[in-house]
Design brief:
Radius of gyration: 17 Å
Largest sheet: none
Number of helices: 4
Shape: globular
Strand content: under 5%
Distance between the termini: 35 Å
Order of helices and strands: HHHH
Structural class: mainly alpha
Number of strands: 0
Number of domains: 1
């Protein structure tokens, strides 16, 4: 395969959509985590929202590593796996619903 056939408009469009598909949920998760950390009650680490990206287990591991850089007592891996796996399950449910729709 030569370079000209790979870098087409459709390929670049797909790459941009992929980047947006990871960036928007991650940013939204962090913002929702920030909101939850300010609500009264038990404190929530805003980094947990970033683990919602469905790159299992990499998003949870990155969340854990970033948390440990800030405070070595942070143990976020298992807490980050919750939203990580929840996003995968949610994606499967939505995909199943979309496939079940009449064409």
């Amino acid at each position: 395969m030569d370079g000209e056939s790979f870098l087409r408009g459709a390929t670049l469009k797909l790459l941009v959509h992929g980047c947006v598909a990871f960036a928007v949920p991650t940013a939204g998760g962090v913002l929702l985590g920030r909101l939850m950390s300010r609500l009264p009650g038990r404190p929530v680490n805003p980094l947990i929202g970033a683990a919602g990206a469905s790159a299992v287990p990499m998003a949870a591991r990155v969340t854990h590593n970033v948390g440990q850089e800030e405070d070595h007592d942070n143990d976020l891996l298992m807490h980050a796996m919750g939203p990580n796996v929840a996003r995968v399950i949610g994606t499967a449910v939505v995909a199943s619903a979309l496939l079940a729709l009449p064409k």
